[in-house]
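Fold this sequence, please.
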Amino acid sequence: MKKLAPDGASAQAMLDFEIFLTSRCNQACSYCYTRCMRTGGREQTLTFDQLRRFADLVCSDKRIRSTFTGPVKVEFSGGEPLLEFDLVKKTIDYIRSNKLDFQIAVATNGTLLTKERVDYFVRNNVDMRISLDGPKRINDRNRKFARGGGSVFDAVLANIKKGFPTSSHMDRCCVTPTLTPGTVAELPAIVDFFRHEVGVSKLPIGLEAYEAWSREEIDRFRDALRAMINGFLKALRPGADPKLTEAAFAEFPLRRELKSEDEGKAYTSGTLALHYDGFFYPSPDFVVAPPPIDPRYRVGDVYSGIDL
């Protein structure tokens, strides 16, 4: 199979897939945005045949290739995708052995990461997005094991320390905290903890999606952002330590890129979700509603193709 991106393209459209690999999860987080996918139904997981057909479809469909000429971004999520690590590995091996132009990431809660798995992901240029909300007192308010049994924070932090021993390993890792109305005021402390105690350089931050945020809670969020900005500005004042100035730019978490560039090529993107029911949907937002998903929102499947 040939690479998806043709040579010489000056501007490319990137196709972005979120693969909801499985409905299974070993955690029961209070605010999980996919929790309704796991209630009231049997456990479901995509098969390797479905995933192989997905990869082949994206690379062989002429209309897809002419519309989206850039690399394909694929993120395995769930549920918890590392409950199906062998399936993830087999799919990545298939993509890499066929030299397909895929940028791959795994969104994981981090409890099932091992040094061997991290090493595998690093060797295969796979990014890891680890869900952790901050220090133990913050994280364990909402993130808990589905069957009890100890601190999620302790388990994940131990895996990070063992699995990411070098900067090249950490370069493939980002931590994704979720802020709630109860923790939003602690944003500066959360960022400081991950930057300086854990050593994370990439920190995309999300807000709890199920919560109806009050005006007062939004104001607390605004105050937290202002506190961070003031701290960064102090580092930029004349006479400030150059190392602090450099760190201020490196650590600032509020940047939002409207486009990405790679070797001078600008990208725009379209987003699709491949659900564990085997169907494509036009956005991940369609598949996190309570089941069953309305079939009118389907835009194809791995056997018949994608209706753009």
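DSSP finds ten helices and twelve strands in the chain. The chain has a mean pLDDT of 84.
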